[in-house]
Queue: 2 jobs
Job 1
Amino acid sequence: MTRHRGTLRGILGGVLLLTVWEAVARGFSLPAYTLPAVSDILAAAWQHRAVLAAAGWITAQEALAGYAIGTIVGIGLAGLLVVAPLLRGPVLPTAMAINSVPVVAWSPLVLLWLGVGMGSKIAMVALAVGFTVFLSALAGFDRVDRRSVDLMRSFGAGPAGVFWRLRLPAALPLIAAGMRVATVRSLIVAIVTEMLGAYGGLGWVIYQSVTLIDFVQVWSAILVASAISLAFFGLVGAIERRVIFWR
Amino acid sequence: MQTTTTALLEMQSIGKRFGAVQALDGFAMDVEPGEFVTVVGPSGCGKSTLFNIVAGLEEPDEGGILRFKGRGCHAKELLGRVSFMPQRDLLLPWRNVVDNAILAREIEGANRAAMRAEARAMLPEFGLAGFEKQYPHQLSGGMRQRVALMRTFLFERELMLLDEPFGALDALTRSMMQRWLLDIWQRHRRTILFITHDVDEAIFLGDRVLVMTARPGRVKLMRKVELPRPRKAELVTSPEFTAIKREVLDAIEEEAMKSFVAETAA
């Protein structure tokens, strides 16, 4: 009930914002490079739907592939540090050092190493997503109640048994929270990396349109990016609510 | 002279030190098969340390003797050999009643389907009939505790360690659970070592009541409870019960004063 009311309120807020936007853009006859009208953006998006769909598809593939790789590596690495605590010493500071620089700062290097194709975007997304998920998974694994671990041990469970039956499920809420945040990051990083060098994708469309002074097209690409991001976020959130039913 | 070969668990001059704290010192006791022994003592007297040693989670210091079924052993060899129930139910929130109850057996490698069937058949006895598909967050405190007890019972070991299993329950639920536990115990014939803060509970349940000293924990008093079984609720007001209670309370009082003085002086 409350969730539906929240959704309704969100939609109403969105409609209100778009109406004000349209009124301001039209009322003050703002030039397109400042703020184009919503109706113009929608019309342009429809007109260029084939180009935008193709670009969106490329970006979505990069984001999804990077997301999948980052999630698996992040959870796996966190799990490894839990099963082999001796690795914590060398691994954790290294991870923190890499993560202390904004991920996007690595883009030029990664483009140099992996080329201008999709590989470099996937690697960048995996890097960004991997750290987010790694840190939340590690926090999740560490949060487990010591007394629960003792109970499992008294039942004769070894470290592997404790991990599968206790640590992993107990860490799921935090892992899922990290994964939800990472959805949005995955698109941002894919698009920014595309802007720095790519053969296609929404970031590339944005960059090209700016050089062609086609600001309505920039906004259309942003629109598509937001839609994909929102859908991805919603999907992961919905899966999360299904899987973690006990909270 | 082997006079104690029948004991299930024997402990002699068991000590345990954590840094500056001597939790146990010269602790000794025997538990006979099928016996119900209750342990009371002032807070911080090392009851939990005692349980952690018997559960195999903590190794006692050098020099003590620990025997299980007549054979000397390290505490860690007891992991998986006694069924341990900690104070809090520690049910896994992502497992339903039946899957929580079979957890210990599942770890042991038992067939899941067969175990589930066995657990389902036990539900009525534990007052959980019709609740097999419920999750812990849907149950009351008393029911959660019964699921935890069921998990402990299903893990069929000769010795059961129960650490204040009813501590968090209200008085009424608690006395019902006590009679219910005695009933189950008499039918399943396990050996039980039971920690509690509640003197009435200790006497009502136990064949023997063990009173521990203030830290470092030793045996202050081992009192046999010669009250007939099955025990009824009205037993607690009988003169025999009151006499034992007087004796046990005096012993606890003395120790509680000691630890109180020690704490306020520190």
Job 2
Amino acid sequence: MLKYILKRLALLLPTLFGVITLVFFMIALAPGDPARVMLGERATADSVEQLRHDLGLDKPLYVQYGLYLQRVVKLDLGKSIKSGQKVSEEIWDHFPATIELTIWAMIFSTVVGIIIGVLSATRKNGWIDFASMGGALMGVSMPVFWLALVLIMIFSVKLDMFPTGGRMNIRYYFTPITGLYVLDGILIFFKSGDIKVFISALHHLVLPAVALGTIPLAIIARITRSSMLEVLNQDYIKTARSAGIKESKVIYRYALKNALLPIITVIGLQFGLLLSGAILTETVFAWPGIGKWIYHAIEARDYPAVQGGIIVISTTFVLINLVVDILYSIVNPKIRLS
Amino acid sequence: MENTEQNKLEKNSLLKEALFQLKGNKPAIIGFIIIAAFIIMAIFAPYLTPFSPTDQDISIRKTAPFVTEHLLGTDDLGRDLLTRIIFGSRISLIIGTISVGISLTFGILIGLLSGYIGGWFDNIVQRLVDIMLAFPYILLTIVIVALLGPSLVNAMIAIGISQIPSYIRVVRASVLAEKENDYVTAERSLGASDRELMFKSILPNCIAPIFVQATLGIGNAILSSAALSFLGLGAQPPTPEWGLMIASSREFVTSAWWIVTFPGIAVFLTVLGFNLLADGLRDVLDPRMKS
């Protein structure tokens, strides 16, 4: 087990090194002079030259690359051109919002996805199966940002049930403790008995989490169905049934447990999808997370911020995949051996 | 070479059988009909509507759907929504086809070489693929477009490039499985060159998974291009691109639901069509990929 984890960790370093290198050269070799682009057409030649010097762009490329690597290793991602703040600090400020959104989207899609998948499998070819698999196919074919807008139109504008955007009612200002507002809300409730923060945070989370979670939900439902169908056909299930064990126990205790393997892998894979989807969902819902932040950095051609943001997001993505692989190898020893 | 003749015959009958089976696959047929409808719409766009996709008429702005001759209503600048959606199908189908063309060309070439040659070359390619797959897909596309400059052409290129790694994976995997087969060894011993082996013997037998991946890929590319245009990085106004139409309708969610809704349904239906067809093709062409 340890050997497998070490092997995977050893593979991690070259991948991360590759990511950092690719990001550096992609931006360094992009057409146009970054300094000119950042300062705009009307900047004087002197100020462009000054910025080139400040950013180290007047040095040869390999020197720039070396310096860049040195800084990244020390976790120094440079300063944002737009705000002048440290990129690492800005990322730190925006990451909890994305983590919170992603986790809730994941919880929503996993719970609902598995329930739908199991219901479909146990009523194969019935109308529930037909409807939910049709729904799943529709879910994966939908543009996330459009779904987000439709949800806003129906649930915020027409029914006035949920806010159109943001993380929090601005009237309930509070100092973030963990940066995860729902968790903060619980902590505040225990400290001062005030439940408003918790309710407001949860209230703001519903629509973005549903929008972001829909595609993973569809995928999880489909994989759960097929995995369950496979397991339900096995002899031990027939034996369990013929032994008179209650059907619900057969399904949830015996079948689902063994059907979980492929489901776990797919859930892990969805995290990457969620990180991608977060850019679009956060833009629509004015959610102050890393996706919206990096989009604005790209828009403003704030290269240090873009570089730093991509490195952090990709590293997270790679790490999550690693954790999923390791978890998978724990539940499925066959993987470790091969 | 009687051997290849035999091969050809067998392949032909396999393809025929696949098509025959596809006829019995209801979802695939629905998918095919949807796609065909959009293709017809794209080809005959100017003949299907009396309106222009770009002419503005402020006096009829935000006309509600189903009441006037503007069947799906008009947008905030008084342009006929249905007309813009019909013309938009041209853009989406072209983007889908061209970007998949880009990823197919490079994906097949690199995947074929990587799987066939193996060794250090394969190693390097696979590490590069790992690195590219370490970027969340949309992020990679956004960064490439942002660097090249926002435009429809650059969006196609960016989508094409970011999908290359998954094609390399698919092609390589089937090449690895194919190249151990006896027919390859036989043809090699008959003096076939590496190039002949790769392109004439192995590649045609790897077509099934590639075909499925490409069909799915067109749907994905249409989704991505809509997303890029939505973020202002793809098509630019007044192009009737579906994602862009959704983006410019954002401020009207409170006042004109149809401007938001219909372009989204167009994206959704097209992508659904390709997904249905891909699912059907997968069942028919490659039973191993069934999940």
